[in-house]
Amino acid sequence: MEIFDLMSERNHEQLVFWNDPALGYRGIIAIHDTTMGPALGGTRFWNYESDRAAIIDGLRLSRGMTYKAAITGLNLGGGKSIIWGDNKTIDREMIFRAHGRAVDSLGGRYITAEDVGTSPDDMEFVSMETEHVVGLLGRSGDPSPVTAYGVYRGIKASAAVRYGDDSLEGKHVAVQGLGHVGYHLCQDLADEGAKLTVTDIDSERVQAVVDDFGAVAVEPDAVFDVDADIFAPCALGAIVNDETIDRFKFDIIAGAANNQLALSAVHGPALQERNILYAPDYVINAGGLINVYGEINEWSAERSKRKAGDIYNTLLRIFEYAKSEGIGTDEAANRVAEERVLEARHLQRTW
């Protein structure tokens, strides 16, 4: 594996490895770009099939955070950290304190928060070793409600463009992934009268949404065949791929998952050819980043939610730009984000 080649493909600044076998900690911190400010991105705790898979995921996710911050108008860079292991482990304190020491070694170039497989409780352990952590209990806490609200507003913006009306009453939405964000999104959608079809690998999560919001459940693989208006992927990434894309009957794909396109250069244009409107993932799911940015800057909860709601207008601008340039929405979002970072390089040094 050629690590510098992998980093150079997307202009990553830094890749840090930290190992503590006695504690069962294997950590990777990827910093993509610090032009706009310190790199911020959550800690993902996942049992990867190989160290290469873990590194590539960290690199992809950190780049997405740079673009997410840039396009949302936040003065932050992009980073991500990976803990490679079983996120179901009960004995977590020493693992996350080791991770806190790894984060602290970067002197503030990277700020962490929760992500897949981690929680605000885990971040409390991290905070014992470093001040460079957000999303703590008693402060901004769980970003899921704000993330879900931003996705909900993004779905409404997508509906406005596709249907000429942003009302979701009576619209059929298929939601994949019913963790914290997926659950809160279902609540927002149900409150507006949307019809829900849902799936998750966790049957208890599915049953909760069925009971609480009157959703219809399907098996995980069957969600790609649902004849719904809107597909909201809120699980892991790469769900738009060669095996799934020809099964889609959706008008819109708009959800909280990161890296939804397995290959952006292939599957972005493929969605465009099929007349499926795609809300770029790092734009529509930026509410979590907004939430922790608000914590850093001591925003009120209302201000953070209002900023997340503005994802609606950000997406409208991206959709209009894509239409005027004759390009896919993912490419349009990338161009807008890259332009902001390039402009900022004339104003300040890297953080």
Describe this structure as you would to a colleague.
- This protein has two domains: 3-62 and 78-127, Rossmann fold (3-Layer(aba) Sandwich), CATH 3.40.50; 144-339, Rossmann fold.
- 44% of the residues lie in helices and 15% in strands.
- It is built from 13 helices and twelve strands.
- The strands form two sheets. Strands 1, 2, 3, 4, 5 and 6 form a six-stranded mixed β-sheet that branches.
- Helix 6 (180-191) links the parallel strand 7 (172-176) and strand 8.
- The two termini are 29 Å apart.
Topology summary:
Blueprint: H1 3-9, E1 14-20, E2 25-33, E3 39-40, E4 43-46, H2 51-72, E5 77-84, H3 93-104, E6 110-111, H4 120-127, H5 144-163, E7 172-176, H6 180-191, E8 195-199, H7 203-213, E9 216-217, E10 230-233, E11 252-253, H8 264-273, E12 277-278, H9 281-284, H10 287-296, H11 301-309, H12 311-325, H13 329-344
Parallel strand pairs: 3-5, 3-6, 4-5, 7-8, 7-10, 8-9, 10-11, 11-12
Antiparallel strand pairs: 1-2, 2-5
Helix pairs in contact: 2-13, 3-4, 5-6, 5-10, 5-11, 5-12, 6-7, 10-11, 12-13
